[in-house]
Amino acid sequence: MTVLTVIIIALVIIGLWFIAIYNKLIRMIEAVNNNKKQIDVQLDRRYKVYESLIEVVKKYMDYERTTLKEVVALRSKAQQAAASGNEKERMEAEDAISKIGAGLNLVFERYPDLKADKNALQLQEEIVNTENKLTFSKQAYNDSIEKYEATRKSFFESMVVSLFSGKLLKEFIYWGITEEQRAQQEQYKVKM
Amino acid sequence: MNSLSAYSASVADWRKQLRINERRTKIVIGLFILIYSAVGMLIDLYLHSGPVYTQVGLINVPLSETFTNLITFKIIPWATLIMGGVAAVSIFITFSLHDKLMLLGTEYHEVTANSARSLEEQQLYNVVEEMKTAAGLRYMPRVFIIEANYMNAFASGYSEKSALVAITRGLMQKLNRSELQAVMAHELNHIRHHDIKLTLMASVLSNLMLMAIDMLFYGVVFGGGRRRDNRLVAVIVILRFLLPLLTVILLLYLSRTREYMADAGAVELTRDNTPLANALLKIRGDHEQHKETYGEEYLTTPHEDVRRAAYIFDPIQAGIEPIKSLTNLFSTHPSIQDRLKALGFTLRS
Asked: Are the CB atoms for B204 and B90 separated by under 8 Å?
């Protein structure tokens, strides 16, 4: 009688243990799947961020370039008028410049972050952030594969995996670059 | 001393560091639970020791027999069970109150993706988001800036969902992007490894068992009544003076272990040990340089003791005492030298 109870208890413990291992591996597989999707999410984000960045900057840069030309033209006009003594024309040109200045200020109000060289810094930060997130999501993906592979190949776990190989045995491929790319990147030198 | 050039660099084996400290934690937590139950058992033994009235008259049950009876539940060990219940309730209450406690007394504001006031704040938020991606956390922790000049940071939250990281303005301004990233990685690891839960649990358990042993001690001293076993009384008196020391040592050991783990985890997330090493040296150097002013600032900020163990750098290591207390003799953090060594940087002699 007691032997039977001991056997039953042992079987129950082993059963619970198998279930725990099974669940752990399923969790790991799903983590890998999610992390892979996270790379897509970050790629998508990068596309959107860059699109909007280019739009904003293009507008701003174009505006600046044309306004700069305008300002230079008006300035020389005003100088010429001053030299020839034509006060009316000179004042008109100066007024036009102040108007441009006010317009420029308005643009700055609307885009406070675009003020002066901050513009470039902001852009730089956004690009670094976007690229980092993409890289880190790839790293997280590889890390989760490492955890899964290490667990499924270790002793005891591998026994459970061989019992339920349909559900627990997945072939994940580490994120990496192709051989050609690697060779290319290794040869890379900064050209100035 | 405060520059990495004084150290010889090698690769940090973060996998090994994580493994070692994970094992240490298990041992410490196991010890805590064991000691806690032992104190409960001691109370039960005390209550059931001495002569007992039975049908055959007054008999003296030996201690070992009472112990076996308690362990096998022939006598229900009520004290141990009640102490277990009290621990569960206290831990639950502490968890639910804790988040609100951590920022107490500081001047702070939250940073979100849209509310960043400057490029620096935007960068801070971005860096936390990047580390969250690398750690594969499901929720973005809330980010707070504390208006203080000293360089420090901490993480809090009993679950991923309610987690927060806080950083002083001084730290944000004096570190470059990659150093800031390493520090935030360290903080996110405290969240990821459930360190807040662990240390809170341990400190609640140690407080409760100190209270229990105190009550038992005064019961023995002033209780009188039935004659007790002398050996039992001796054990209670010794524990009354030994246990406080033991719990302090265990708590400090646990805290240091978790710091090593967070450091190793930061290397795991950033795959680079230099930024964290640089940041740690910068923080220590800065504390030493502004010892007077920072000491003043730490002292005038209320409830600094709540945050002390959670900070990335324990100000005591720079000779600053944020609170007046006996535990200042020991630091909750390993020395910067030891932390750098674990990161792969050994001081050249």
From this structure: yes
Contact B133 A140 (CB under 8 A): yes
Is position B129 annotated as part of the catalytic site?
Answer: no
Q: Is A42 at the interface with chain B, CB within 8 A? A: yes
- Total structural domains in chain A? 1
Q: Identify whether A77 is part of a domain.
A: yes
pLDDT along chain B (349 residues), means of 10: 78 80 88 91 82 69 80 84 90 78 81 86 93 90 91 85 89 93 94 85 89 88 69 87 90 89 92 91 90 84 76 81 57 86 85
| pLDDT computed for residue B313 by the predictor | 87
pTM of the model: 0.79
Question: A-B interface: how many C-beta pairs under 8 angstroms?
Answer: 42
For residue A87, what pLDDT band results from cuts at 50, 70 and 90? low
Alpha helices of B224-273 — where are they, by DSSP H?
230-270
- CATH number, domain containing residue A110: 1.10.287
Q: Does B162 touch chain A (CB under 8 A)?
A: no
> Range of B328's domain?
4-347
3-state secondary structure of B86: helix
Whether residue A192 is contained in a domain is answered as: no
Residue A57 domain-assigned (yes or no)? yes
Residue B1, classed as helix, strand or coil, is: coil
Are A133 and B129 within 8 A, CB to CB?
A: yes
Residues on chain A touching B192 (C-beta within 8 angstroms):
none
Type of residue found at B251: L
Q: Is B75 on the interface with A (CB under 8 A)?
A: no
Is residue B4 within 8 A of residue B280, CB to CB? The reply is no
pLDDT the model gives residue A131: 85
Quote the domain boundaries for residue A65.
2-169
Work out how many domains chain B is built from and give that number: 1
Smallest Cβ distance to A125: which of B119, B268, B271? B119
The pLDDT value given to residue B132: 93
**Sign of the C-alpha dihedral, residues B70, B75, B80, B81?**
positive
A181 found inside a domain: no
